[in-house]
């Protein structure tokens, strides 16, 4: 229980929830929806605009294709949602696409999905923050004038928040997400009312501008290609749909059912919002150009580089609610906030995926341990650095960044759907119950259709966007893939080298005797303690060892040794060059040479200090010596610590550090629950 | 002996000389002069210009004071040289000013001198490189157009050279220094011949330019103040004179006498060159202005910011040898090179001073060990960083940097001369022999006069330059002083805390029993080895300990344990949150609580790997656990290393690392010799 005196600190730092207490917090659907769906829901803030941007290449006349594209995106979205509902039921352990692909299609497929997801996390941060900045900019001009700067400031802020260990709380996510969803529905409703009932003419700020088509009179294959490109841009709305399938353990029971319901709800909301915004954009005559400075014309003259083209959602809001109205500003702020929250989900998703990959030895093992601040921090910094680099290189331009985005998502969609088809095939082969079989066949059909459709989209995306930037994402995936394969190979090689032979071997042949050596620099409490401990260990021989760096000091040491009557022989090593490490190493080696079957136990008194700068002042030669001794075979190195008064501070720090919760805890669900699920799920037995 | 196969590598890296072989290289006077005197000799490249710059404030008419200022600087130089000849005889151990001040005036004075010298090293790098760039620029215009960039490039180059461990070789120093000295004397001689014998009129490039005086008709106190300022700028010629007093151990025998002779030679060379250059500058009508863009007039019009004012030495060379002549270019190159070598001396001086300060516990102890690459590297990087910052802030303008330079040197001069007066007073009190007394009284008179004169100059420098930038140097000195005092206080406090009480105490009370715990993650060679070693230690109890992070793995481990019939009990700790550190720490604490007089020996199997990235993949939880265990009282932590095949590479690296020689070795002289000197010198007994 928290003490009263801790209150101010707890308010500031928020260490109140220990991980074992956290375990009891399971998410109801109304909180799970915003926690997991801020990414896919926020996508509707930029996806409609991307469709119009691509169509504008063929001029405003091509805009009449946009409803068809919206329908295609909606169909795809509903298909993907239906497919993931199957995954949620079949793999409720939270492993998501990686688990599905790895279990059913082998580790290579799993690794491909993992690489795609890692790239996807980076892109989620870059795209969401850029889009958020653009939306915020429609209300606050300063922001859009310093886009890159502001975007990087948001990254820094999110990074610090996550490094500091601010856990996402359900409520924190819920408020802006619900404000955003309500705002968009209010806009759609009010827009429909004004248009259909009142008969108002609503005009977007760009309604009066013309678009100079980059390619005149497109037809035939070229037009189809353009429509496909517009469609694949619209698919940006699907990013993040897989999040719920990774978060099943965090749901209240019945977990799988609740998660599936939330998925369906999310899909319906996203589709409605996407189509509503496209329709309103058509009605209010929003005109978007890929290169607004040159291609947007006011009375036949390009608007020039000073012109800022606001996102579709904010143009529509302006048309429906009126420029500068309260509702317009609230919606712009909620949009930006929900986009930043979407970026934050990547900060939480990364360690979860990293931990699962580490379990399979594709990532450094320490990522496996939950709540390991150090390892987690490295991941956060890597993620933030990569996203900041992309934002810098692409000038925080969400349109250009989206070209890189969708590849990863669809690689992961397609692979996991194919995996699910395999999954059902395998289960059908064993299943005899007719009802269950019918159910499985239906599920297989859904996943097969999902696999077909997402594979098609993946091909479309690759073909239409490869040269526009998708190659960067593909390159990133390859890098992750190669790195993880190399790590796994390293671990396998080491495991082979370390494997214990059956029965006795030369390597572990019983050594015969232990020769203990206590290193002494001068006589003080730490060395006396080390001597006392060493005596207690009852090794076969025991001696104290000092290096003669300074003749006078050594003589003093020797005299004090005699005077105190210490009953351990003191051996003095000469060191004309004032070195400490080399003479000790050479002495240890000579001992081993004399009697190769003996082992040498080197006992080093060590001070424990409290501050990093004190480390610079102490133990440096002890540390170096230890480092070198580790390379010497047949040696064991023992530290006898002596805690200085100042070490108390560091001890407290270490304890606080341990009680720290890794972000992402909420969405993984409590550890005990998860461990149980893993054992119970059929996937665990596969 | 070097193997033939090593030859290409040795040529590249230059590891040929081991420090014990280096010992035999003692410097003859003709090599010692360039090694130690590149700093003071190179000062004549910028000091004359600084005098003219300051005088130009009162207009060209004030230039007729410059011979008087040259005479004053010459007198001061000879006085300082005479004083240092006394120091060289009295303190031949190479401790220099720091030792003199510390021994005779107490540690505070010593620390003041040390702070001054540390600032001085930084300034030497900044000023010498800036001046070198300006001289190089008179031959290569590109260099002077990108001054800051080129200066920082030279710093980076010197830093890399020194980090890599390129030792200065006598010859490397000798060539450019002798070329420079010969060139300057040739210039003076040829100039005198042309002027006096041939009657040529030699005109510097700025001879036709007028100077707009910043202050018209200065007289009385203002004029005196200006002359004093000009004089204190000219004192820049004295920087580095103390170098020889730090290098006595590197001289051939009789060391002190040879060093004193070299000092005298260096003083005469510097004075002649300084006066010669000033005279030639007068003859060839060199006109220098502090702000050339505004104050240099061509036909009454300012020359504007595009004009580059070359240094005096290069203007004189141009007038004497002719623009673009071979000799002019060679002299410019030699001047730049000797200035860069002067900067390099600071890179060598820093670790030498650092090692002496560390011996007195004013600096981290590891600096004490000679050839410690890590500690030395930190010093190099600190020095380079500070110098690069100064160069960046002051735009690589040597004139502005020199304002900061001279304070430190004169603090050190004055303090050590006062120390020498005390030294002679003390020795006179004990000395009875009349001849020796006469000799000592003469020496005391020289040092007293030196102290008086340098103190006067220090006051002049502080008064005339404080607002011009000297405050930065004073601030730097204060920072170093405070830092070193704090380090010393820390070491003293710790020493007090650690002091061993006489007789038995609670603290070192004999513990009664040892409880050994071997940490097991899985059964492989490292753990089997650790178990074998642990058994050999014959502690009172021995058990194996594993943390149950994954139920299935733990069960497998337990089964294998049974199957192999390992005769050590295996204890399993539960860890519902997949932590490793906390359960172990808590178990160790509980053992200690049960029997507080026992100690716990924790034995950790460790892999030894060869590459830094492998460290990321292994031992992380072992390292963290070790870190935490050190805070737990009554524990000893033992590493049992298992060398992986890849560790061989790291072992080789560590060995190479150890054979690395710290730069500055040549100027410190061989270690054995030095140790002997220290024991023999009268200062050692003081």
The fraction of residues in strands of chain A falls at: 5-15%
Number of helices of chain A: 28
The residue-averaged pLDDT of chain A reads 82
The biggest beta sheet of chain A is recorded as: 5 strands, parallel
Envelope shape of chain A: elongated
Most residues in contact, chain pair and counts:
A-B, 90 and 90 residues
**Structural class per helix/strand content of chain A?**
alpha/beta
CATH superfamily of the largest domain in chain A: Amino acid/polyamine transporter I
Q: How many beta-strand segments of chain A?
A: 8
**What oligomeric state best describes the polypeptide chains here?**
homodimer
Bin the helical content of chain A.
Answer: 55-70%
What CATH calls the topology of the largest domain in chain A is: Amino acid/polyamine transporter I
Q: Taking strands numbered 1, 2, ... along the chain, how are they ordered across the largest sheet of chain A?
A: 6-5-4-7-8
| Radius of gyration of chain A, whole Å | 32 Å
First-to-last CA distance of chain A: 42 Å
CATH level-1 class of the largest domain in chain A: Mainly Alpha
